[in-house]
Amino acid sequence: MGERLSISFEGAARTVTGSRHRLRFGTRSWLFDCGLYQGHRDEAERVNRTFRFDPASLTGVVVSHAHLDHTGNLPSVVSRGYRGDIHATPATADLARVMLPDSAFLMQRDVEHVNRHARGRPPRVPLYTTAAVEETLARMAKHDYHEPWPLDDRVSVTYYDAGHILGSALTTFEFKSGARGFRLGMSGDLGRPARRILRDPEVHPGVDALVMESTYGDRLHSEAVATERELAEIVTRTAARGGRLLVPAFAVGRTQELVASLHALIERGAAPDLPIFVDSPLAREATGVFRMHSECFDDETRQAFEAENGAPFGFRRLRYVGSADESRALNDRAGPCIIISASGMCEGGRILHHLRHGLGDARNTVLFVGFQGEGTLGRRLKEGATTVNILGEAVMRRAEVAALDGYSAHADRRELLDWAGSLKPRPRTVFLVHGEPGPMEVLASALRERLGVTVHTPSLGQEFELWN
Ligand SMILES: [Zn+2]
User: Fold this and answer.
1) How many angstroms is it from 217 CA to the middle of ligand 1?
2) Of 201-215, 277-291, 367-381, which has the strongest mean pLDDT?
3) In angstroms, rounded to a whole number, what is the distance separating the alpha carbons of residues 368 and 227?
4) Ligand 1 mean position to 396 CA, how many Å?
5) Which of 13, 224, 349, 367 has its CA 20 to 30 A from that of 60?
6) Residue 395 Cα, ligand 1 centroid: separation in angstroms?
């Protein structure tokens, strides 16, 4: 008998947010990802503040990528006494430098807003402070893709490219007990092949068990080429009307990918040569991190980046808007243009004043390129609302509304199945996480049928023995 290896699912269990999994091997334990649970305020508060184990007792923390639903609750672990390293790829650690302070800032602002309307309720405090973020960032240890590093004297870890966002990783853990070994693969969020900027997802080398995401386990996305063709058509018809194209987009990943697409389309004459404004301070900072990490680019992007002095992130028709005054000044600008701004679901940020100003003009187009959560302004617009409330003002919509689903950073059903099918040898057991129950069950059945593997869909807190 060796030491017992187990995994417990502490987050993103039958849901798509708040990724958090705990590995235990003998007397030691590690946390894999520690994301924010994003949802209604009170529920999110409760989930994000609850740990079913003492974070101070962890031997280590390993993260897959920088999205906040995978890293956004790391400062809570540190503020509860964790004093070890937080392992990440170099690009993930650098993106966290931009994203975690922004997260702390937004929490502080939200708490101030809630407390102003508290009416006698006890004041809230933010989940964590900027000081906790600073300490979290100081604990980051960077590891390149493909280079195994020792997590412990009997555990080694290797990152492979997940092709999801800059720096995103597939993580392989190798546990040793005497002459025997056990390999566990964690997909993190899995990207898609043939996208701009990033390389295609790699696959884990042979693993005994696999933990895999299932966000789009029941859906197919449009092909990349078809998506860009549609984007070109939207830009062309908006320009022909003399209008502006307003794109609410997530600042990290989606904005850069869209800019790369527009650059390519304009360069080959498939779309009119319009000025493009990226109006989001976070997007500007995140793009700075992209520029530092050309090692993560696919060949085409790296060649363009080197040959054209920073293109596709800084070409002559692209402007990064700095101050709020500069942002407002865009309202007075004449002629067609493209404005990409956050937040992606129109729940805050500078996109709101662009919408308030531009939604009433039938020449304009609002283009959605990401998922729009229930109850958000983005969702109402995408579903065809003709009057919406923006910053306390009722606004009539006359602008065209368009949507592209091909910019998703998550593999779709076919891509998930192809990817899992290419693992050699096949894992004996697959655990599905990071999905709503519906898509997860559809994917689970398909995996059982096609690969003949045992598939579990763990519930929150469920623990499985992997090896002993
Ligand atoms: Zn992600």
Assistant:
1) 15
2) 201-215
3) 12
4) 34
5) 13
6) 33
3-state DSSP call for residue 202?
Answer: coil
Query: How high is the pLDDT of residue 118?
Result: 80
Ligand 1 centroid–CA 215 distance in Å is: 10
- Span from the CA of 164 to the centroid of ligand 1 (angstroms): 7
- The partner residues of 175 in beta bridges, in order of sequence, read 155, 182
Interior angle at CA 318, CA 315 and CA 322, nearest 5: 125
In a 3-state reduction of DSSP, which class is residue 368?
strand
Amino acid at 108: Q
First to last CA, the chain: 6
Rg (CA), the chain: 22
Cα of 372 to ligand 1 centre, how many Å?
15
Ligand 1 centroid from CA 191, angstroms = 9
- Report, as an integer, the average pLDDT of 298-322: 83
pLDDT in tens, 239-273: 999 999 999 998 888 899 999 999 999 989 999 99
Instruction: Indicate whether 399 pLDDT > 90.
Output: yes
Cα of 165 from ligand 1 centre, angstroms: 7
Q: Please name the fold of domain 224-403.
A: Rossmann fold (3.40.50)
Task: Name the residue ranges covered by the structural domains of the chain.
Answer: 5-219+409-467, 224-403
CA pair distance 77, 132, nearest whole angstrom? 9
Domain 5-219+409-467 has CATH 3.30.360.10: no
The alpha carbon of 33 and the centre of ligand 1 are apart by a number of angstroms equal to 11
Tokens of 328: 């407002």
